[in-house]
Amino acid sequence: MMNELWKMTAHQVKEGNFTKAILSIGSCEAHGAHIAEGCDTLVSYKLSKQIADRVEGMLVLPPVTVGYSAHYDSFPFSLTLSYDTTTAVIYDIIESVVRNGITRIFLMNGHDGNIAPIEIASRKIKEVYPEVQIASLTQWWVAAGNLLPKDTFEVWGGLGHAGEGETSIAYHLFPDWCEPKLATCVVPDLPDEVEIKWDFSELTDTAQTGDATKATAEKGKMMNDAIVEHVVKVLNELDEKDWKYRR
User: Fold this and answer.
1) What is the pLDDT of residues 183-219, one digit of tens each?
2) Looking at the domain that runs over 5-240, which CATH code has it been given?
3) Which end of the chain is more exposed for a tag (fewer CB within 10 A), N or C?
Protein backbone atom coordinates (compact mmCIF):
# COMPACT_ATOMS: atom_id res chain seq x y z
CA MET A 1 0.00 0.00 0.00
CA MET A 2 1.39 3.38 -0.99
CA ASN A 3 1.20 5.45 2.19
CA GLU A 4 4.80 6.45 3.08
CA LEU A 5 5.01 10.20 2.52
CA TRP A 6 8.73 10.35 1.79
CA LYS A 7 8.35 7.82 -1.03
CA MET A 8 5.34 9.46 -2.68
CA THR A 9 4.85 12.20 -5.24
CA ALA A 10 2.60 15.16 -4.46
CA HIS A 11 0.12 13.73 -6.94
CA GLN A 12 0.02 10.41 -5.12
CA VAL A 13 -0.46 12.13 -1.78
CA LYS A 14 -3.39 14.14 -3.15
CA GLU A 15 -5.01 11.09 -4.70
CA GLY A 16 -4.59 9.15 -1.46
CA ASN A 17 -7.31 11.16 0.32
CA PHE A 18 -5.58 10.73 3.67
CA THR A 19 -7.58 11.66 6.77
CA LYS A 20 -5.07 10.68 9.45
CA ALA A 21 -1.29 10.62 9.89
CA ILE A 22 1.06 8.54 12.01
CA LEU A 23 4.42 9.89 13.20
CA SER A 24 7.14 7.64 14.61
CA ILE A 25 9.58 9.32 16.99
CA GLY A 26 12.88 7.59 17.63
CA SER A 27 16.49 8.17 18.61
CA CYS A 28 20.06 7.20 17.83
CA GLU A 29 22.09 5.90 20.75
CA ALA A 30 23.87 2.81 22.05
CA HIS A 31 21.58 -0.16 22.70
CA GLY A 32 24.07 -2.39 24.44
CA ALA A 33 26.67 -3.70 22.02
CA HIS A 34 24.22 -6.02 20.32
CA ILE A 35 21.43 -4.11 18.53
CA ALA A 36 21.42 -1.19 16.11
CA GLU A 37 21.85 2.33 17.43
CA GLY A 38 18.75 3.36 15.52
CA CYS A 39 16.62 0.69 17.21
CA ASP A 40 14.06 3.14 18.58
CA THR A 41 13.50 4.71 15.17
CA LEU A 42 13.44 1.40 13.33
CA VAL A 43 10.95 -0.22 15.69
CA SER A 44 8.59 2.75 15.87
CA TYR A 45 8.61 3.25 12.10
CA LYS A 46 8.12 -0.42 11.24
CA LEU A 47 5.24 -0.63 13.71
CA SER A 48 3.75 2.55 12.25
CA LYS A 49 3.87 1.17 8.72
CA GLN A 50 2.14 -2.06 9.76
CA ILE A 51 -0.56 -0.08 11.54
CA ALA A 52 -1.13 2.29 8.63
CA ASP A 53 -1.44 -0.62 6.19
CA ARG A 54 -4.50 -1.75 8.15
CA VAL A 55 -6.15 1.58 8.96
CA GLU A 56 -8.04 3.37 6.20
CA GLY A 57 -6.77 6.81 5.23
CA MET A 58 -3.59 6.84 7.31
CA LEU A 59 -0.47 8.57 5.99
CA VAL A 60 2.92 7.44 7.32
CA LEU A 61 5.12 10.46 8.01
CA PRO A 62 8.93 10.29 7.83
CA PRO A 63 10.31 9.30 11.24
CA VAL A 64 12.05 11.59 13.70
CA THR A 65 15.41 9.81 13.82
CA VAL A 66 17.10 11.74 16.67
CA GLY A 67 15.44 12.62 19.96
CA TYR A 68 16.52 13.56 23.48
CA SER A 69 19.30 11.14 24.45
CA ALA A 70 21.63 13.18 26.66
CA HIS A 71 21.10 10.68 29.49
CA TYR A 72 22.71 8.00 27.27
CA ASP A 73 25.63 10.20 26.25
CA SER A 74 28.18 8.24 28.28
CA PHE A 75 28.12 5.53 25.62
CA PRO A 76 29.07 5.63 21.94
CA PHE A 77 27.63 6.88 19.63
CA SER A 78 24.77 8.90 21.08
CA LEU A 79 23.21 11.69 19.08
CA THR A 80 20.89 14.03 20.95
CA LEU A 81 18.72 17.06 20.52
CA SER A 82 17.94 19.26 23.51
CA TYR A 83 14.58 18.90 25.22
CA ASP A 84 13.46 22.21 23.73
CA THR A 85 14.58 21.22 20.24
CA THR A 86 12.92 17.80 20.45
CA THR A 87 9.69 19.44 21.58
CA ALA A 88 9.93 22.01 18.79
CA VAL A 89 10.58 19.36 16.13
CA ILE A 90 7.53 17.35 17.18
CA TYR A 91 5.39 20.50 17.38
CA ASP A 92 6.54 21.77 13.99
CA ILE A 93 5.88 18.45 12.25
CA ILE A 94 2.38 18.22 13.73
CA GLU A 95 1.69 21.82 12.76
CA SER A 96 2.86 21.09 9.21
CA VAL A 97 0.45 18.16 9.03
CA VAL A 98 -2.38 20.37 10.28
CA ARG A 99 -1.61 23.02 7.65
CA ASN A 100 -1.94 20.28 5.05
CA GLY A 101 -5.45 19.54 6.19
CA ILE A 102 -5.00 16.47 8.43
CA THR A 103 -6.15 16.99 12.00
CA ARG A 104 -6.11 13.43 13.35
CA ILE A 105 -2.62 12.36 14.32
CA PHE A 106 -1.18 9.29 16.03
CA LEU A 107 2.26 9.49 17.66
CA MET A 108 4.23 6.24 17.90
CA ASN A 109 7.13 6.80 20.25
CA GLY A 110 10.15 4.51 20.44
CA HIS A 111 12.30 6.19 23.08
CA ASP A 112 11.99 7.09 26.75
CA GLY A 113 13.69 10.48 26.34
CA ASN A 114 10.92 11.63 24.00
CA ILE A 115 8.04 11.11 26.42
CA ALA A 116 8.18 14.57 28.01
CA PRO A 117 8.69 16.43 24.69
CA ILE A 118 5.73 14.56 23.16
CA GLU A 119 3.51 15.58 26.08
CA ILE A 120 4.56 19.24 25.90
CA ALA A 121 4.35 19.49 22.10
CA SER A 122 0.91 17.84 22.06
CA ARG A 123 -0.44 20.13 24.78
CA LYS A 124 0.90 23.20 22.97
CA ILE A 125 -0.72 22.06 19.71
CA LYS A 126 -4.06 21.60 21.49
CA GLU A 127 -3.81 25.12 22.89
CA VAL A 128 -3.30 26.66 19.43
CA TYR A 129 -5.35 24.17 17.39
CA PRO A 130 -8.11 22.81 19.66
CA GLU A 131 -9.72 21.00 16.73
CA VAL A 132 -6.66 18.76 16.29
CA GLN A 133 -7.02 15.27 17.74
CA ILE A 134 -3.85 13.54 18.92
CA ALA A 135 -3.47 10.00 20.22
CA SER A 136 -0.15 8.48 21.20
CA LEU A 137 1.57 5.31 22.31
CA THR A 138 4.47 6.69 24.29
CA GLN A 139 5.81 3.42 25.75
CA TRP A 140 5.21 0.48 23.41
CA TRP A 141 7.58 -1.64 25.53
CA VAL A 142 5.28 -1.25 28.54
CA ALA A 143 2.14 -1.75 26.45
CA ALA A 144 3.50 -5.00 25.01
CA GLY A 145 4.13 -6.38 28.48
CA ASN A 146 0.58 -5.48 29.52
CA LEU A 147 -0.97 -7.02 26.39
CA LEU A 148 0.90 -10.32 26.47
CA PRO A 149 0.60 -13.17 28.98
CA LYS A 150 2.53 -12.47 32.16
CA ASP A 151 4.82 -15.44 31.62
CA THR A 152 6.02 -14.23 28.19
CA PHE A 153 9.18 -12.71 29.63
CA GLU A 154 11.64 -14.35 31.97
CA VAL A 155 13.47 -11.44 33.62
CA TRP A 156 12.28 -8.04 34.90
CA GLY A 157 9.02 -8.31 32.97
CA GLY A 158 10.97 -8.03 29.73
CA LEU A 159 11.82 -4.42 30.47
CA GLY A 160 15.14 -2.64 30.09
CA HIS A 161 17.01 -0.58 27.54
CA ALA A 162 17.94 -3.18 24.92
CA GLY A 163 16.65 -5.73 27.43
CA GLU A 164 14.68 -8.89 26.85
CA GLY A 165 11.68 -7.20 25.22
CA GLU A 166 13.36 -4.56 23.11
CA THR A 167 16.05 -6.97 21.95
CA SER A 168 13.38 -9.53 21.04
CA ILE A 169 11.51 -7.10 18.81
CA ALA A 170 14.81 -6.06 17.22
CA TYR A 171 15.61 -9.71 16.47
CA HIS A 172 12.19 -10.00 14.83
CA LEU A 173 12.19 -6.75 12.84
CA PHE A 174 15.84 -6.32 11.81
CA PRO A 175 17.95 -9.37 12.72
CA ASP A 176 20.66 -8.44 10.22
CA TRP A 177 21.50 -5.38 12.30
CA CYS A 178 21.99 -7.26 15.55
CA GLU A 179 24.88 -9.16 17.19
CA PRO A 180 23.24 -11.57 19.66
CA LYS A 181 26.56 -12.94 20.89
CA LEU A 182 27.25 -9.55 22.52
CA ALA A 183 24.01 -9.47 24.56
CA THR A 184 24.38 -8.99 28.32
CA CYS A 185 22.26 -9.04 31.49
CA VAL A 186 22.23 -6.03 33.81
CA VAL A 187 19.22 -5.61 36.11
CA PRO A 188 19.63 -2.44 38.22
CA ASP A 189 18.43 -2.21 41.81
CA LEU A 190 15.64 0.37 41.55
CA PRO A 191 12.79 1.02 44.02
CA ASP A 192 9.17 0.18 43.23
CA GLU A 193 6.68 2.97 42.38
CA VAL A 194 9.28 5.73 42.87
CA GLU A 195 11.25 7.01 39.89
CA ILE A 196 15.00 7.60 40.08
CA LYS A 197 16.10 10.30 37.64
CA TRP A 198 19.25 8.52 36.51
CA ASP A 199 21.99 9.04 34.00
CA PHE A 200 22.33 5.73 32.20
CA SER A 201 25.94 5.25 33.31
CA GLU A 202 24.64 5.00 36.90
CA LEU A 203 22.70 1.85 35.96
CA THR A 204 25.02 -0.06 33.66
CA ASP A 205 28.47 -0.22 32.14
CA THR A 206 27.27 -2.07 29.04
CA ALA A 207 24.77 0.51 27.67
CA GLN A 208 22.08 -2.09 28.34
CA THR A 209 19.67 -3.01 31.13
CA GLY A 210 17.41 -6.02 31.59
CA ASP A 211 18.37 -9.45 30.31
CA ALA A 212 19.05 -9.39 26.60
CA THR A 213 20.35 -12.96 26.73
CA LYS A 214 16.73 -14.14 27.13
CA ALA A 215 15.56 -12.36 23.97
CA THR A 216 14.18 -14.29 21.00
CA ALA A 217 12.69 -13.34 17.66
CA GLU A 218 9.61 -15.37 18.61
CA LYS A 219 8.96 -13.14 21.62
CA GLY A 220 9.58 -10.15 19.37
CA LYS A 221 6.91 -11.28 16.92
CA MET A 222 4.45 -11.69 19.77
CA MET A 223 5.18 -8.12 20.91
CA ASN A 224 4.96 -6.77 17.38
CA ASP A 225 1.63 -8.43 16.68
CA ALA A 226 0.09 -7.48 20.03
CA ILE A 227 0.99 -3.80 19.62
CA VAL A 228 -0.18 -3.59 16.02
CA GLU A 229 -3.45 -5.37 16.76
CA HIS A 230 -4.15 -3.14 19.74
CA VAL A 231 -3.40 0.18 18.03
CA VAL A 232 -5.37 -0.80 14.91
CA LYS A 233 -8.33 -1.69 17.14
CA VAL A 234 -8.10 1.63 18.99
CA LEU A 235 -7.84 3.68 15.79
CA ASN A 236 -10.79 1.89 14.20
CA GLU A 237 -12.85 2.50 17.33
CA LEU A 238 -11.89 6.18 17.28
CA ASP A 239 -12.95 6.41 13.64
CA GLU A 240 -16.28 4.75 14.41
CA LYS A 241 -17.13 7.44 16.96
CA ASP A 242 -15.61 10.25 14.86
CA TRP A 243 -12.87 10.77 17.44
CA LYS A 244 -15.36 12.13 19.95
CA TYR A 245 -14.58 11.24 23.54
CA ARG A 246 -17.43 12.77 25.55
CA ARG A 247 -20.24 10.37 26.43
Assistant:
1) 999 999 999 999 999 999 999 999 999 999 999 999 9
2) 3.40.50.10310
3) C
